[in-house]
Amino acid sequence: MQENQVRPADPDGLATALLRASRVLVAVSVRSLQDSGEQVTLAQLRMLVALDTRGPWGLTALAADLDVSPSTALRMVDRLVRAGQVRRDSDPDDRRAVVLSVTSEGRELVRRVSVRRREELASILERLPAEQRPAVVAALEAFSDAAGEPPVSADLWGGPQRSE
Questions:
Q1: Helix/strand number for the chain, H first, E second
Q2: Model pLDDT, residue 79
Q3: Does residue 8 sit in helix, strand or coil?
Q4: What is the CATH number that goes with domain 11-142?
């Protein structure tokens, strides 16, 4: 075993392997966002994805889901509202509260970035031996499930949706 290789059953080894893979995924995400031509940060894109996949939310719940402070979330929302990607509406149950939702422009940005990201990931995965692909898919699905990440919608990129 080479010095930089890890044992798959070792939790530290798994974390190290995921850390390495996350560097690739972040680089793909950054390139996909840059290719969109939009002036949106990765954190703002995370917010748009959360609103797109989970529907309208209040600021406090959205901030908690993104693991940022409400004041940070508010600054992000303000920027996305000005860009026409997020909409603020009054909560029909509590007129003092605000509900945030993604606009069609924000949804289109999420779709474009997701399509570009998927294309680049598919290109990387094509270099993986075919017999290893099912194990990689199963491992990534299990990891995403453990993290509480919802399935990717088929209409996001035009492919089949993962079955539950």
A1: 7, 2
A2: 95
A3: coil
A4: 1.10.10.10
pLDDT band at 153 (very low <50, low <70, confident <90, very high): low
Strand duo 94-102 + 86-91: pairing: antiparallel
* Residue 9 confidence class, pLDDT cut points 50, 70, 90: low
- For the entire predicted model, the pTM comes to 0.75
Paired residues of 90 in beta bridges? 98
Which two three-digit tokens encode residue 28? 């793909």
SS3 86: strand
Cα–Cα–Cα angle for 110, 79, 48, nearest 5°?
A: 25
Q: Can you give the pLDDT at residue 35?
A: 84
47: alpha, beta or left? (left if phi > 0; alpha if psi -120 to 50)? alpha
Give the residue among 101, 118, 119, 110 at the shortest CA–CA distance from 38: 110
Q: Distance between CA 164 and CA 162 in Å, rounded?
A: 6
pLDDT at res. 108: 95
Name the amino acid, one letter, at 43. A
